[in-house]
What we know:
Layout: H1 2-48, H2 52-80, H3 84-97, H4 99-109, H5 113-125, H6 129-172
Helix pairs in contact: 1-4, 1-5, 2-3, 2-6, 4-5
Amino acid sequence: MSTEVDRSASWGRRALWIGAGLVVLAIAVLGASATVPRWWAHRVGAQVDGSITQGTLLGLVYGFVFTFLPIIVFVLIVRWRRTWKTVLFGLVVALVLAAPNLMTLSIVVGTGNAAHAGDRVLDVEAPAFRGGSLAGAILAGLLLAGIAYLVISRERAHSSAHRARTERDEALAPPASQDEGEG
Length: 183
């Protein structure tokens, strides 16, 4: 009977910890949504320094690298071991690696005051960064699609060649004599 009490107390403590974790997460998200877009816009603005050329090039680099890298890392982690813990770990790592693109996205699609302030900062201090970032992300997506096509077509070609070799070997093999035992 004491094990039943221990189990219910354990579940109660778990539920309390999960609830507390969700409250802390909600507060962190609210705090981040009020500060991160403005902060990120100022960091990018300091790097671009008002130059359209620098804004475009930096946007291309950020968009490409922080789209390509998270997807490649996620795919490699999931291919390494496909358990729910590994997939969750891969997803967390990919989200951390994609943070610069996600912060830029929070400025572009955000509706809060910080997003609008970040939008104005990017307009003045980092012109063409958002467009360059989008173009870089699209280029990374196209490259990843090309790589996926090559990998899949290579696997198909290898399996087709293996099937053809097997059929050829079966056709060239001497027929097994059925009347060996009759002689």
